[in-house]
Design brief:
CATH class of the largest domain: Alpha Beta
Bound molecules: S-adenosyl-L-homocysteine, iron/sulfur cluster
Number of domains: 2
Radius of gyration: 21 Å
Helix content: 25-40%
Shape: elongated
CATH superfamily of the largest domain: Aldolase class I
Low-confidence stretches: 346-368
Order of helices and strands: EHHHEEEEEEHEHEHEHEHHEHEHEH
Length: about 375
């Protein structure tokens, strides 16, 4: 029977050191291996020419560098690119590249589907299939950097990573943390903590854990200024209400010398976009290390919401800004290829779920 090989893609420095030590070699080779994989993007261990033939042979027997297969690529008229990767039989995830003049942002997925069931989100509508492993998470960055041309300054294409694709990253804590470690490692992608943003709908205990272990930039999907409404839009709120969520956020910010936390707020017509909602939001966020990011709602098959009008979004934004809240409105990118926020994998997972005969998995089935 074929022995399963360990995928080097998802291994952090200490794991590779352990592999090397097991093979009877000194640990410093681990740094060389990380560089071959994540800076030179090789997939064949034989190409690691600064390792001895014997070590390469031994590594080849127990490890591999294996990427998920690309199923499709869509390029939007604004340059946004969406890739669909195979994540096993009947399963797929999406990754979105958003080019801008001063940066290249990669929006990555952390789970196949999502269990949290937010009522305005295509991924939530499809239910939960499984957590991605660290290698499947990091392979999205590996793929983008290895296939896109380098930037004008010679650096890799991706300058920023946001966990805003499919899934709730804090519900897949262990693998997400390991992937972040590889993103931040100088021997791998060398991204600064400020350029990696984790977006969460509010799994409060894991926000504190994240702050203890790895303080990347934090974005929080608030979407409602009171518990009654948030319970409907973001059902995890019934377990972790707004006051607990915000306490965890302010502690997180404090641990990072009061660095700002971004609060995402999807603008839903007549649901959360009135001036009363703006007043409630003001009371929650004033004099706090908070930036508010309004997101025009992106529609998808089967959704019952409409986006607020651009006039209403402007009015909401101006009122809050004049009151002293830092507010921006997110520019919608890639909506012609269904790559905008909240649209990911709607169609794919519909197909997956009908094939598997699965129903949506609710919050009670949330995997930690
Ligand atoms: N699960 C995480 C990260 C993925 S979603 C989270 O919820 O934060 C990334 C962002 O897109 C979140 O702020 C999410 O609320 C938002 N979003 C989801 N569906 C959307 C839609 N249909 N239109 C606009 N934004 C949406
Ligand atoms: Fe999951 Fe985030 Fe979508 Fe909510 S908004 S269902 S947490 S992916």
């Amino acid at each position: 029977m074929k022995k399963d090989k360990k995928n080097l893609l998802g291994c952090n420095l200490s794991e590779i050191e352990a592999i090397i030590a097991d093979l009877g070699y000194r640990k410093f080779h681990a740094k060389q291996i990380l560089k071959w994989v994540h800076k030179r993007y090789i997939t064949d261990i034989a190409e690691m020419t600064d390792l001895s033939n014997d070590l390469r042979d031994k590594l080849n027997k127990s490890t591999e560098i294996e990427l998920p297969a690309l199923i499709s690529e869509d390029v939007s008229k604004d340059g946004t690119t969406k890739w669909l990767f195979n994540s096993g039989i009947g399963q797929a995830i999406e990754t979105v590249y958003i080019p801008e003049t001063d940066r290249g942002t990669l929006c990555i997925s952390s789970q196949v589907g999502c269990a949290l069931d937010c009522s305005f989100c295509a991924t939530g509508h499809q239910g939960f299939n499984r957590n991605l492993n660290a290698d499947e998470i990091i392979s999205q960055l590996y793929f983008a950097n290895s296939s896109l041309p380098r930037r004008n300054n010679g650096l890799p294409a991706i300058t920023n990573v946001v966990f805003m694709g499919m899934g709730e990253p804090l519900a897949n804590f262990k693998h997400v943390l390991k992937a972040i470690e590889i993103m931040l490692s100088d021997h791998a992608y060398g991204l600064s903590r400020r350029r990696v943003t984790l977006s969460t709908s509010g799994i409060v205990p894991n926000i504190s854990q994240l702050s203890d272990q790895c303080n990347v930039s934090l974005a929080v999907s608030l979407h409602a200024p009171n518990d009654e409404l948030r319970n409907k839009l973001v059902p995890i709120n019934k377990i972790h209400p707004i006051s607990d969520l915000l306490d965890a956020c302010w502690s997180y910010a404090k641990q990072q010398s009061n660095r700002y936390i971004t609060f995402e707020y999807v603008m839903l017509k007549d649901v959360n976009d009135t001036m009363n909602h703006a007043r409630e939001l003001y009371r929650l966020l004033i004099n706090k290390p908070a930036k508010l990011n309004l997101i025009p709602f992106n529609t998808f098959d089967g959704s019952n919401y409409k986006s607020s009008s651009s006039n209403q979004i402007k009015k909401f934004q101006t009122w809050l800004r004049e009151k002293g809240i830092i507010v921006t409105t997110r520019k919608t990118r890639g909506d012609d290829i269904d790559a905008a926020c909240g649209q990911l994998a709607g169609k794919v997972n519909n197909r997956v779920l009908s094939r598997l005969g699965k129903k949506s998995v609710k919050t009670s089935n949330l995997q930690q």
